[in-house]
Amino acid sequence: MTMELRHSLSFVAPEPNARPRASAAAGHLRTEPKPVRVVIIAIAITFLSGFVVLPLVVVFAQAFSKGASAYLAALSDPEALAAIRLTLLVAAISVTLNLVFGLIAAWAIAKFDFAGKTFLITLIDLPFSVSPVISGLVFVLLFGAQGFWGPWLQAHNVHVLFAVPGIALATIFVTFPFVARALIPLMQEQGTQEEEAAISLGASGLQTFFRVTLPNIKWGVLYGVLLCNARAMGEFGAVSVVSGHIRGQTNTMPLLVEIRYDEYQFVSSFAVASLLAMLALITLVAKTILERHLDEEELPREH
Amino acid sequence: MSTSAGRRSTLPGFGLTMGLTLTWLSVIVLIPLAGLFLKTLELSPDQFWNILTSRRTLNALKISFGLALAAALVNLVMGTIIVWALVRYRFPGRRLFDAIVDVPFALPTAVAGIALTSLFAQKGWLGAPLAALGVKVAFTPIGIFVAMIFIGIPFVVRTVQPVLIDLDPEIEEAAASLGARRWQTVFRVILPSLIPALLTGLALAFARAVGEYGSVIFIAGNLPNVSEIAPLLIVIRLSEYRYADATAIAVVMLVASFLIIFVVNRLQRWAQTRIPAH
């Protein structure tokens, strides 16, 4: 239950300047005395600086506390490279699958009317409300040695848990709603007229989707992929439960952060963490840019 | 849900895409979650009850739910102040601070965990001055509380922000011209109309904090019965191969999150039935 909320709300662009100031003369009736304003702004800035900005600064300060060469060394040893590779692989798998699912689900949900639509959306949203640890646990119960399919898997020498498939499954679970949730409101807003016109002109369903629908929702697709990817690369709890922490094999970057931290290798832990923090910052900047495009995409296009 | 009855359009592919959606949803989400409930059924009611009422489990649940509620209440107050500053006032860096609100969403939880621990450790930038005041944050329940506040910040702000932006200015102008003082207008006119959004934000922040793992475990200290959160106890039970214990705790937490989803849906319906903003 993280970014979906921000997302569904952010279509109503939080841009106060956009609202017409019809009654500028009455403006003084709508604000507080200056001392109150100053105190409220000061509290907001202090709180955000202390609780959000400082933790970010700490990550980079710690990562570089022994200099740039120690930082680079921490990122270039085989263990770190293996973790980076695994993180990229798992993110690629889960983003791809969730992208395909998201497009399919959004088509079914946004372009057609049927009973139980709200309930179906609630089910798609479920992974956002489940504790990350439980998101991992459910796969341990299915695929673990004592799990439902564990004995069969063992007999056939198939490794799901403590291997890449398990990590990918847990990541797909926690990132399940992102793309679908980004696309459903957008596609509902856009309606079906353009697609119907294309079909009546003789286009096939797939042609209609790729030539009419997809160009209309491209920023929404990027938005969903962006958030899905950020969570996939950063997921810790769910992956931690299914990974088994096999060094050099099943450690993703967030898991390596934990292992090095627990071994008191603070510089190298924070070095890996700094990469993830940069990913978060880049994601936020890209998100802000995409939100601007999304506001345009949502507007009815004039022909 | 027949392919022809409910359709409003002549577009193709409903049956196929709906079938694929339901299949993929079942494979990834529904069957694994159902498996958790099925596993619980293997326990006798007595076993289930004994696990949940054991001292360590009860304390872990109390710590997770209690501190999550406390943190969500802090987020409610601070979130209201932050959203008020961001929406109603102009100050240098306003847009930057608006973007910063999302950092707890975007920052991987393990990174947040070690950063907060380092910040609030006894020699940390904030931990040292606090230690001088006699407050120990890291490796105590206060640390859990701090981490839960951190991850909950965006929820109240992002839920209330659009509602406050859309609030009809004429309502408060009317209140003012009828002689209400500014604080009366704020507390009797504006805040009441924000209540559904505020409660939704509170519920979402609470839900997130209850299940939170990564950003909490580094700073918590993880002392059983004192600073051990329920998700960590699940992980510990799993590592001890006590699957039944892990499952029972997980089911309780899952049911709690379903209840919260239900409450949030209700709150949103309530918000929609209230007088529209414009």
List keywords for this structure.
heterodimer; A: 303 residues; mainly alpha; globular; disordered N terminus; B: 278 residues; 13 helices; 77% helix
In short:
Chain A is 73% helix and 0% strand. Chain A is mainly α.
Describe this structure in words.
The complex is a heterodimer of chains A (303) and B (278). In chain A, 73% of the residues lie in helices and 0% in strands. Chain A has 15 helices and no strands. By secondary structure, chain B is mostly helical. Helices cover 77% and strands 0% of the residues of chain B. Chain B has 13 helices and no strands. Chain B has helices spanning 14-41, 45-53, 55-88, 94-100, 103-106, 109-120, 127-132, 141-166, 169-177, 182-211, 214-220, 230-239, 243-273. The longest helix of chain B has 34 residues, at 55-88. The chains are: A mainly alpha (303), B mainly alpha (278). At the A-B interface, α1, α2, α4, α5 and α6 of A face α1, α3, α4, α5 and α6 of B.
Tell me the strand percentage band of chain A. under 5%
Question: Roughly how many Å is the radius of gyration of chain A?
Answer: 23 Å
Oligomer: heterodimer
Q: Tell the overall outline of chain B.
A: globular
Distance between the termini of chain B: 36 Å
Mean pLDDT of chain A: 88
The count of β-strands of chain B is 0
Structural class label of chain A: mainly alpha
Major β-sheet profile of chain B:
none
Largest sheet of chain A: none
- Estimate the helix proportion of chain A, in percent: over 70%
Ranges of chain B where pLDDT stays below 50 over 5 or more residues in a row are 1-7
Number of helices of chain B: 13
Which two chains have the most extensive interface, and how many residues on each? A-B, 110 and 106 residues
Average of pLDDT of chain B: 92
Instruction: Provide the succession of SSEs of chain A.
Output: HHHHHHHHHHHHHHH
| Count of DSSP strands of chain A | 0
Strand content of chain B: under 5%
Order of helices and strands of chain B: HHHHHHHHHHHHH
